[in-house]
Every structure is written in C-alpha cells, then in structure tokens.
Specification:
This protein is of the alpha+beta class. Helices cover about 40% and strands about 10% of the residues. It binds 2-acetamido-2-deoxy-beta-D-glucopyranose (3 copies). One 2-acetamido-2-deoxy-beta-D-glucopyranose binds next to α11.
Length: about 475
Amino acid sequence: MMGFRSRFVLLLCLAALLAVLSLSLQFLHLLPLPAGLYTSDQGKLRKRVLVDLVIPPSELDAMYESHRYCNRPNHTVQGLEGHVPPGYHLASIVVMIRHGDRYPLSSLPGVSQPDIACDIKPEREPTHHQLATFVQHMRQADLTHLEGALASLPLFPTVRQCETGQLTQTGLVQHIMNGEYLRQAYDNHGGLFADVDPPPHVETTPRSRTLQSAMALLYGLRPMFPWSSMHVRSQASVYYCGTACDCPARGLYLERTEQERALNRAQAPDIFYKALAELLDLSVAQAKSTLSVDPLLALFCHGQQLPCRQRGCLKSASFRLLRQHQLTEERKSKRGAMYQRFALLAMYPMLNRTASHLQRIAEGHLAPRLSLCSGHDTTLEPMLNALGLHDAPFPRYAARLVFELWRKGPGVGRVESHAIRILYDGEDVTSRTSFCRSRPAHEHCPLRVFLDFVSSGMLAPFNTSSYQQACQVLQRAL
Ligand SMILES: *[C@@H]1O[C@H](CO)[C@@H](O)[C@H](O)[C@H]1NC(C)=O
Ligand SMILES: *[C@@H]1O[C@H](CO)[C@@H](O)[C@H](O)[C@H]1NC(C)=O
Ligand SMILES: *[C@@H]1O[C@H](CO)[C@@H](O)[C@H](O)[C@H]1NC(C)=O
C-alpha cells in the first residue's frame, strides 16, 4: 500500500508531466492556441502578446468600440495570418478588405464640415516611411492595367479639402501597413506576391477610396511592384455578385431589416438623441429619423472637437450615449432572421466564386495564388454574417478578412489534402464559422467542408439548393 505522502508526490509528478506535455504541444503547434493568443514561429516576437481582436469587452463599451472602429495607425498591425499548420504548405490566399479611413458620407445640418485634409503630405501625421515612394509609384502608373472606368479615378488622394467619402492619408497609411504586415506574415511564401503567370487577382468597386486602398495594400505587400504584373478589375456591386446580382428576395430581406432598424430607432428612448437634437435645433423625432452618426465618428477618429454651435458643443458623454445605442441596435439587427437571409443571398455569388477558385487551386489548376478584393462595410458585414460570424464586430476602417488555403504534404490535385483558415483582423475565426464550428477544436477545417457549405448548406435556410430559386420572392417565405 502506498502511503498518503508518496501518492501525493506521484500526483505532483503526473501534474508536472502533463503541464510540460501541454506546453510543448502548444509550442510545436500540435495544439492550437486559444484564440487571441499570439506566438511567433521564428522568434520575430518572443513575448506572447494578447491581442484580443475580435472579442470586445463583455460589456459593450462605446468608447472602446469607437477607437477600434477608427483603427488609428499608431501601432503595429498584429495577427495570426501565415501560421503554418505543421506539415502544410500555403497554396493560396484570398484577402477581402474594407477601404481605409474616409471623409464622412453625410453632414449635420447647420454644422460646418470637418476640416480634414485629403492630400498626401509625408511630413504630416499619421505618416509612413513608404508614403513618398508610394505616391511616386502611383504617378508613374501604367493606366492600361486598370479596367474600364477605374483608369479615370485618382490612384491616391490629391485634393486638400476632402470630398464626400474620400480616402484620407490615414486611410492610405492603414492599408500600406496592412500590406507590409501581410508581407512579413507570409514572408512572400514561395514568391506568392511576385507571381506573374498568372498574376495576382485584384478587384475593386469603382470608387476612388476602394481603388486607392487596394493600391496601398499591394504597395505594402510589394513595394515598387512592376505595373506590367498588375491587372485591376472593376466590380460594380458592393456584394461582388458579378453577373448574378439579380436577386429580388435579397432586396426584400434588406428592406425588412431597414424597416426594423428605423422602427427601433423611432422607438428608442429620447435620451439617446436629445443632446444632438437640441444642438441642431431639431425635434428628437427628426433627429432620430434623419441624422447619421457617421460625421460624428469622423470628428472622433480625427481627434477633433465634436460639433459646436452658438449654444455650445456636443459633449463626449452624449456621443457615448448615441454610440452605445447605435452599437446595441446594430448587434440586435445582425442577429435577426431577415438580416441573416439577406446576408446569405448577398454573399452567395462571391462565396461560390471563392469556393470554385480554391477548389481549382486545390485540384492543381493554374489560377492566381493571391486574390485581393477591395470593398466596403456593406461588403464585409454580410460576408461575416454569411460565414456564421454573427458576433464579429462591425468592419472597422481598413478591416481585413483573409481566407488561407493550406496543402498537406505533396497532395497536389486532391481537395482532401487541403484545409482552410479564415482570419478576421488577424484573429483566427475558423472555429466560429457555421461550417467548422462543430468540429473538434484541434482539427483543421477541411476545404471539403467549406465547399459543401457553399454548394448546399448556405442555401438550406431557403429550402432549396438553387440560388436562383432562393432569390425568387415567395409570399409564404416572408
Ligand atoms: C493610439 O491612439 C488611440 C486613440 O487616440 C489611443 O487610445 C492609443 O493609446 C494609441 N496607441 C498607441 C500605441 O499610442
Ligand atoms: C457558382 O459556381 C459555379 C461553378 O463555378 C457556376 O457554374 C455557377 O454559375 C455559380 N453560381 C452563381 C449563382 O454564381
Ligand atoms: C423552409 O421550411 C421551413 C419548414 O417548412 C419553414 O419554416 C421556413 O420558413 C422555410 N424557409 C423559407 C425561406 O421558405
């Protein structure tokens, strides 16, 4: 019989052994790290840094959220992109972005427009060491490599006084930094960024802010890239639906969502809008139905005084209340059935295309290994939702969503030897997607599971496997 003491010592040894085993497993990347924990392979960063990118504090903190949204480029970009699962090789990446910081899309009545500069001055903050060479490179652009109307858009912001929705220097710096970070994270994996045959697939909506954001990111990825290796395509729809944009049901679900949002706003306690309404000489009802928080956020993001009139300025506490309300409503609305159906239909064509693209690469066909799609919050928000990431925060300025395709060993030509990872602003969210949520946490998400989700799972809520059918407006479905 073992005495109490020796049993205790035995237990202690066992515990120590387990601890060492678990640590070394994590170190060798055999077990995934808890989400949000950053380690580096090559000792680039020796410390573990808690990044906590996607999960906001459990209490929705309006100020924290607003800072996150602005994404001021005053710190290095962090993330878990490029973390190779053991035994795998990177086969392809698809990067979807929201444009960087921009001038507001609307203004407040009776308040002067924010004074924000939209020309590039490397000596002005926020700056970046590549800003001057970026501008030079854009001046020497060969415009024949830009599709259609894109060639008539400026490749970088040029005017002192911003126009509605224009990219700012901050927005440009945000995406140069994203590109620079991705270059480090992937270490130009086997020449990924320098492919010429076929060259990277680059696509943008025909707006200057998205085109300029794409250019900035590409420049960060590959400074002084040769224009001959560049072909920038234009995508007319913010949903990237290409030739499959005709979808009446999508419009209807979005309309329902907007009606719900308007109703919620109208019914919101007056306290949220009172201060702003008083400042602008509006009734609270008018303020609720007509005002947008966007111009206030622009002031906040640029560290400027909130709007002032004769009677004084909007107080920070009032801004906080407004944002608190807006964020709470946004969350509620995103979880609604109408928005989720809208998101699935809006993103079906783009996910279908992404799935086919990754499948072609997995099967060994020649296809661009790097894809970049530059869009809007109205692109990324439904995309996150369609993937099942309902609780992901609203896409901030210069947000990035990355699909990584990994190949195990010499498995060229076989879908079964491929896995995907999905990262949102650097955080690995694969295990929170609707298709890989129920899998054991330490297993990789097989490409096959993603392909099956797109070809059937995605449309299951519409009781069909046909996008065209799901798009038909059926009275009974509403
Ligand atoms: C960056 O700016 C934000 C907002 O002004 C501030 O809260 C944060 O501390 C700054 N970060 C660094 C690293 O300076
Ligand atoms: C989905 O992808 C397949 C294969 O590329 C294509 O034939 C089909 O037209 C696509 N459907 C839509 C709605 O985009
Ligand atoms: C699909 O079928 C279920 C059960 O019959 C029904 O509750 C649901 O509303 C249907 N969905 C659509 C979009 O028609």
